[in-house]
Amino acid sequence: MKNFKYGVFIGCLLMSSCNKSEKTDGSAENNLTKKEMSAENAIFTKKEKSEVPAAPKSGETYLVKYKSTGAKGNEIWMTGLVTFPENYEQNKAGTHIISWAHGTTGISRNAAPSLFQKGGANEEALLMVAGYLDNWVQKGFIVVQPDYEGLGSEDSKGTYLNRQSLSNAVNDLVKTVKSQHQTSGKWVNIGWSQGGYAAISAADNAAEGLVGTISIAPGDSEIVTPELKAKGLKPEDILRMIEGDNLGFIPILLGGAINANDAVKADDFLSEKGKEMIQSADKMGLTELRKSYSQLSGKDMLKENPNTKHLQDYMDSQRLELAEPKGDVLVILGTEDVTVTGDTVRRLAENWKKRGLSVDFKEIKSADHRQSVPQSFDVQWDFVQKVLK
C-alpha cells in the first residue's frame, strides 16, 4: 500500500530533515557535562548565519542550550535556536516572541534543525521554513526554535510524539529567553505537523504571556482510530500495511515510544530486523531511514504474534484529543494535504470547540502539507495581530 494514508497516526511526519553532525570545538557549549547541568543559566552561543541555515537570515541568531524536563520527568539539557530582530536593542520592552515548533526530522541527536548544514537531508523543507520564519523576524519578532528532547543534545534519546516532553521543549525555551532578555512578555505559539502537535501540547500548560496558538496540519499519536478499533483492528494490522518510503517514519514513531515509556518494550512486538531499525532511528534522521529501508514493509519489523497492548495504550495516552489548549487557537490545513487526514483534523477542532475551547479552523486552498506553512502566512498574520491587541 504505497499510497497508504496515515491520517491521524502519522500526520506529523513528512517534514524538515535530519542533518550532519555539529562541529565540535571542545568548548562547553558543544560538550554538555553534569557539572554544567548545575549551572544557573542557559548557554547562549552566537552563530554566524552560515552555521545555522535553518535559522532566519535576518537578525542575530544564537544556539541555546537550556534546562528542561524529559518525557520520564528527568532534568535534561535541550537545545534550540533564538533569532533576535535587528531593531531589538531599540525596542526590547516592545518585542514579542514567536515560538516555532518544527516538523518531523527524526529522534536522533543529529536530526536537530540547529545542526542542519546546507546540502544536508531535506534541505528544501528546512530552507523553506527558514524563509517563512524570516518574515516574522522582519516584522520585529524574536523567533525561538526548540529542537526537542534528544535532538541536538546527548542527554536523552528522542521521544517524538510525547505531549509533556514537547510542551516542555517549547515552554522552557520561551521561559529561558524571557529570563535572560527583556521582551514585552507576550508570545505566540506556532507549529507545523509534529510541531502542530507540539504547539497544542504547549498551549495545554503554557508559559506565562501566551496570547495565541497556531497549529498547522497537526499530526497525532493514535495508531488505530476509533473507527478501525470498532472493526477489530490492532496496531500490528496497521503497521503491516506500511511499505516503501513511508516505512522510514515507523522507526521514529516506535523508537520514540520505546524511549519515552518503559512499558513499551521492543521485545514484545519487534522482529530482529525491527529492532535493528529502531537502533538506526537513534542514529539516523528521517531521510536516511527512508533510503535505508524503502525496500521493506511493516511486516518485516514485527515478530510473530506481536503484543502491542502497551504500545497502543501509550500512544492512545498521548492523543491530542486529551489536550486542553488554553487561549485562542487557530488550526490550519491545506485542502491538498494528503499527509494528515482533513476529516480527522476538522473533527479534532470541532470537538475542542464543543468543550468550550476558543478554537478556529481555516483551510488553505490548493495547499499541500508543506505549502500550508508559507501559503497561510497572511491568515497567520491576521490572527497574530488580533491576539496581540
TrEMBL record:
PROSITE patterns the UniProt entry points to: PROKAR_LIPOPROTEIN
Entry's Pfam families? LIP (PF03583)
What Gene3D superfamilies does its record include?
Answer: alpha/beta hydrolase (3.40.50.1820)
Gene Ontology molecular function: any one: triacylglycerol lipase activity
List UniProt keywords, sorted A-Z: Hydrolase
Q: What superkingdom does the record give? A: Bacteria
Gene Ontology biological process terms, A to Z: lipid catabolic process
Concerning SUPFAM superfamilies, the annotation shows: alpha/beta-Hydrolases
Q: From the Swiss-Prot or TrEMBL record, give the protein name.
A: Alpha/beta hydrolase
